[in-house]
Amino acid sequence: MPILNHAKDLRNQFLSHDNNSGVCMILCGGSGRCKSTINRIIASSLGEYATWPGSQWIQKDNLKFDTAARQGINTIIVEEMHWIDIQHRIILDKTLNSIKEQLTGAGMDMDYLLISINETEYVNYRTLSHLIRSKPEYKRRFILINIDDDKYSDIVECRNRANENWQDNYIHMEWLAGKAIKNPDVMAELNQLDLERSLREEEVQNLVAFLDANPNIFDIDFDPNSIKHKILK
Fold first, then answer.
1. How far is CA 145 from CA 22, 67, 163, 171, 174, in A?
2. Cα–Cα dist 102/23, whole Å
3. What is the 3-state secondary structure (H, E, C) of the chain?
4. In terms of pLDDT, which residue wins out, 75 or 29?
5. Residue ranges per domain, the chain?
6. Lowest-confidence range among 33-47, 142-156, 216-230?
7. Average pLDDT across the chain, whole number
8. pLDDT digit string (tens) for 100-109?
9. Is residue 47 within 8 Å of 183, Cβ to Cβ?
10. What's the CA gap between 101 and 109, in Å, rounded?
11. Nearest of 132, 56, 63, 121 to residue 88 by alpha carbon
């Protein structure tokens, strides 16, 4: 199950990041890369969390944390951060600095911030990586992930598979997915269910191939000795 496996690895990287307070992980990449899904799975494994669309989070380069602060929630997801109109490094720098201040306790007491962005000409993995590497205080607070990297290509393949309905149902059950990535026993159970599903699908595909190869099998005059393929069991 590619999405769960990558979510598990990213969660481990997130929790092991060397910092003395809060940390932010930014998933960069094109649309349809399951960035928000991965963030929600990771957040659900950490406990209670709040989610807002990125369009509501930037106002004069400052992030708005008031609602979550009042509720005492210290894990926040920002889905599709809207940096579309930011064309200058200084504006992006101010935004990252605002996030850093929140993570260091200058704002609310926030432990985990997960952000997903669709890359633009001005805000992408390259520009963010350059800016984060340029300042030690950013390197301590930010983890930048390029979901377009080849190592994550199976996420897109999984999403595009026509027979992924079973997996989609489990992915959207965030509490179960979150439990799986932090509990090896639950992950093993899901992997076993996924294996059994794959075997059932293989049997169906073999039967379909058999019927395609022998279209006259239900004819009265059909000769069993003419069967072209055997059904694999």
1. 17, 27, 28, 20, 21
2. 10
3. CHHHHHHHHHHHHHHHCCCCCCEEEEEEECCCCCHHHHHHHHHHHHCCCEEEEHHHCEECCEECCHHHHHHCCCEEEEECCCCCCCCCHHHHHHHHHHHHHHHCCCCCCCCEEEEEEECCCCCCHHHHHHHHHCCHHHHHHEEEEECCCHHHHHHHHHHHCCCCHHHHHHHCCHHHHHHHHHCHHHHHHHHHHHHHHHHHHHHHHHHHHHHHHCCCCCCCCCCHHHCCCCCCC
4. 29
5. 2-181, 187-226
6. 216-230
7. 73
8. 877 776 655 6
9. no
10. 10
11. 121
State which fold the 2-181 domain adopts: Rossmann fold (3.40.50)
- Between 208 and 127, the more confident residue is 127
Residues 164-212: pLDDT tens digits?
Answer: 554 555 555 666 777 777 777 777 777 777 667 666 666 666 666 666 6
Task: Give the list of residues 6+ apart from residue 28 with CB closer than 8 angstroms, or none.
Answer: 117, 119, 124, 125, 128, 144, 145, 146, 147, 148
Rounded to whole angstroms, the Cα distance separating 129 from 144 reads 7
Flag whether pLDDT at 58 surpasses 60.
Answer: no
Q: CA 141, CA 47: separation in Å to the nearest integer?
A: 20
Q: Give CA angle at 33 (68, 144), nearest 5°.
A: 60
